[in-house]
Amino acid sequence: MERTFLMIKPDGVQRGLVGEIIKRFEAKGFTLVGLKFMAVSKELAEQHYDVHKERPFFQGLVEFITSSPVVAMVWEGEGVVASARKIIGATNPLNAEPGTLRGDYGMDVGRNLIHGSDAIETAQREIALWFTDSELVNWGPTQKPWLYE
Ligand code: ABT
Ligand code: MG
């Protein structure tokens, strides 16, 4: 079953939006299979944002992600990678549609509340980077046959 990596960034935690954000994915029907509240090391932040390492905003991004705790999560379900990106909304919250998390709660591209893997391969890389196998729980869709046709 498809899985994605989602991370509520420091701004989402500081603004008290953890419950609201988790609620959207739960209500949609996706299955939570991993969750931890954690401080992020510089090494982990740099590895996570490795694709952006040549970009001018890279250092600020690493400083931001390591500045305060985050909520790291793995969610499971058919099409969850692309669907979660839709629920999250456009990278720049000012362009994000109302009804998306960034559209409803965000104001700044560098403070856009939550990260979501942008492709299935990226999700696999990010899940392996942030979670060990024993931190992930296999329990969901097999016990919820009403979710899928
Ligand atoms: P992430 O889910 O955090 O990866 O965001 P998203 O995939 O929507 O957008 P990308 B392009 O991956 O942005 C990564 C982080 O870099 C910030 N950023 C991006 C800037 O600050 N300035 C920019 O010009 C761009 C393109 C936004 C993202 N994170 N934060 N915080
Ligand atoms: Mg990205």
Automatic annotation (TrEMBL):
Residue positions binding ATP: K9, F57, R85, T91, R102, N112
Cofactor needs: Mg(2+)
PROSITE patterns attached to this UniProt entry: NDPK (PS00469), NDPK_LIKE (PS51374)
Any matching Pfam family: NDK
Catalytic activity: a 2'-deoxyribonucleoside 5'-diphosphate + ATP = a 2'-deoxyribonucleoside 5'-triphosphate + ADP; a ribonucleoside 5'-diphosphate + ATP = a ribonucleoside 5'-triphosphate + ADP; dZDP + ATP = dZTP + ADP
Classification via CDD domains: NDPk_I
The EC number(s) this enzyme carries: 2.7.4.6
Domain Nucleoside diphosphate kinase-like as annotated: residue spans: 1-138
Subcellular location: Cytoplasm
Active site residues of this protein: H115
Gene Ontology molecular function terms on file: nucleoside diphosphate kinase activity
Catalytic EC class: transferase
SMART domains named among the record's database cross-references: NDK (SM00562)
Tagged with keyword Cytoplasm: yes
Alphabetical UniProt keywords: ATP-binding, Cytoplasm, Kinase, Magnesium, Metal-binding, Nucleotide metabolism, Nucleotide-binding, Phosphoprotein, Transferase
Family the entry assigns: Belongs to the NDK family.
Function per UniProt: Major role in the synthesis of nucleoside triphosphates other than ATP. The ATP gamma phosphate is transferred to the NDP beta phosphate via a ping-pong mechanism, using a phosphorylated active-site intermediate.
Family matches, as HAMAP family: NDP_kinase (MF_00451)
Self-association and partners: Homotetramer.
Protein name (database record): Nucleoside diphosphate kinase
Native organism: Spirulina subsalsa FACHB-351
Taxonomy of the source species: Bacteria, Bacillati, Cyanobacteriota, Cyanophyceae, Spirulinales
